[in-house]
């Protein structure tokens, strides 16, 4: 499985971009999307909400299960991807692209986030 090198990854299978003007984009990894099966519903944090790294901030429901969504960063939610709310299948179709979930204003990314190689090793160990 391919993990984009320009993203950072959490051990909970979320990704985030390097901040641009203090804002990072968050989504779930392709590995997570594949493991979930067909995503049919997403509950995302509301704009203006503060999320904390490692804490539950929403939920993803698939035809297989309901899973908690964990924030990979701490900060204020500044945007949610309405396209994913309207069409949750985007999470499966383009997890690292149009299937992004929300954007957060951050001070910095947590040091414990993994690069693509580290996340690949984590996923390999889980398989």
Automatic annotation (TrEMBL):
Binds 1 lipoyl cofactor covalently. The modification N6-lipoyllysine is found at residue 64. Its cofactor is (R)-lipoate. SUPFAM superfamilies: Single hybrid motif (SSF51230). The glycine cleavage system is composed of four proteins: P, T, L and H. Belongs to the GcvH family. The glycine cleavage system catalyzes the degradation of glycine. The H protein shuttles the methylamine group of glycine from the P protein to the T protein. This is Glycine cleavage system H protein. The lineage of its organism: Bacteria, Bacillati, Actinomycetota, Actinomycetes, Pseudonocardiales.
